[in-house]
Amino acid sequence: MLETEYFNVADVFGEDVFNDSVMQERLPKKVYKKLHEVMDEGRELDLETADVVAHEMKEWAIERGATHYTHWFQPLTGVTAEKHDSFITAPMENGKVLMSFSGKELIKGEPDASSFPSGGLRATFEARGYTAWDCTSPAFVRHDAAGATLCIPTAFCSYTGEALDQKTPLLRSMEAINEQSLRLLKLFGNTTSKKVCPSVGPEQEYFIVDREKYLQRKDLIFTGRTLFGAMPPKGQEMDDHYFGAIRERIAAYMRDVNKELWKLGVSAKTQHNEVAPAQHELAPIYGKCNIAVDNNQLTMETLKKVASRHGLQCLLHEKPFDGVNGSGKHNNWSITTDDGINLLEPGATPHENIQFLLVLTCILRAVDEHADLLRASAADVGNDHRLGANEAPPAILSIYLGDQLQDVINQLVSTGEATRSLEGQRLHTGVKTLPDFMKDATDRNRTSPFAFTGNKFEFRMVGSQDSVAQANIVLNTIVAEAFSDVCDELEKADNFDLAVHDIIKKQATEHQRIVFNGDGYSDEWVEEAERRGLPNIKSMVGAIPAYIKENNVKAFEKFKVFTRAELESRVEIEYEKYSKTINIEAKAMIDIASKQIIPAVIQYTTALATSINSVKSAVAGADVSTQSGILTNISELLTEVHTQLANLKDVVEKASAIDCCQKQAEFYRDEVKTTMDKLRKPVDELEMLVGKEYWPMPSYGDLIFEV
Ligand code: ADP
Ligand code: MG
Structure pTM? Predict the structure, then answer.
């Protein structure tokens, strides 16, 4: 029986966070005010204020059981990093220690940068790296088996200030969109909004499997995905898992996850079963861009940590199982002012909302001009199994607007004037006892990679285990660029109304090719997109060069989000990441095939041969053709496994000898990955022929249907 421990959400929410109410309660008024000036207006933080904040933060953390503090940062490894220091100072004369934490320790850390990916920045600059406190994202105390630790969200830079992490460029991009949005709002007569910030709500998909079974799969352990595995008799074709009743074991797990997240101030809100068996989703309530990115990292960590407590394993990989839907992350994005205005709110009659139409067409333009960059922002090794591989979403970037906005855009393009907006209709169910209600003016489209959903855009390409930072850095920057260009024009226009009108029409017309409301999975769309000249970038390796394409570099440099050197370093890191990941996968395959699969198949064939011989000697002339047929079939497949295994070893060796990182990554994609597929094929066929008790690992059926 599962024990249910009841608790009041309001009591636990944020209890481990040094949030605004804690600060207000614990900090002297003057210090609290000063800190807010830093947080809200970007003023510089003086050491005196930092000292007081640090002291109070430490006292609070110690009350919560913390013994250590860490600067918590997001290097380019894809996961978070931390180095723990305890609060103790040198023992005093009397042999006792004091607990201390200074302002300097709060605002600056010095982890050795040389062991983190820097993509060549390290070769030209020093190895020293700094972490700097991001005071706009609250500190928190994390509890785990090792005790409690005060975690301070930080940015991570090299000695000369180059970004070595996700957060630094993210914060820079937020400044860019803040500045340009304020310019735009001012042109429309808004003088009250002081700050503009992107709002982000990332929906997180994941798989849950039994941990005991997970531990019997070396492929899952080493690579996060299965490298072999035949499809079970039942896959996801019945669609009975999506939104289905959540099983008790999973429900207990989710409950625990939610509680942990709520304590950390992460507003976990929605949970449900996803399309694939054993697949689930968790969505928070949206928040400020950098906090949402931090919270998503915490969510991923928590999903994994809590799973092991329940004898479960959380798989965040984009494609843990071939033939079954993969996992992604939907990055919901809008732009909000400090006084609560959402720039993406169309209102009931969008055709009259000139400011909205300008913002909308700026986004069309930004996405059209930088489609390759947005695609690159979602590129990840695991995501290659989804984007462009017959799975949601397609690799071609397009925007879904829905009937209502599409109609407004059509009017603008054809006549230069939008005079009406489609209205939502009454929904009639035909059942008297069910209430009729007004439905939205626009239906949803699940196949679009970039869909307008009411008052936000939903970018659906990001991979499930990737940080959402990169996607938001790109979105913030390219939209800031479009805003900046139109502001340049509008600020010098003689007739503002006329100029806005012209820009809206021009942008809608010039960039309507990026809008597509149809079925994004269809083959016709692939052809149509090609006719429209939209990029269809099928792999991560093919996507990476977008970072250093001239127009993209220009946008990043203009808003000081990335320097060219930083972009070049990121390109190198991405290629390396690709090569290293495929290399690990290939080596894991070689290991599993040689040490587990081939020996198991040999055992089975031996048993089969022995059985044939004993049947023959027991009954003279007995028909053993079935057994012999199976034996022959298996032996042939075994030969094929042997051949492909040799080929794989060969290409892996060749790959490691290539020294240009782009060429190497291309070789891994074109040669190593294809050979891996060739090795997998006979192995999966063998799994269907070899007796279950001989097969050295749990099957897909065991993993996804028996949680
Ligand atoms: P949908 O069903 O349209 O995807 P949900 O209500 O499930 O919408 O929201 C999905 C995610 O989008 C949630 O994380 C939610 O908080 C977030 N979200 C909702 N409104 C906005 C907004 N204006 N800006 C950014 N994110 C938003
Ligand atoms: Mg959604």
Answer: 0.94
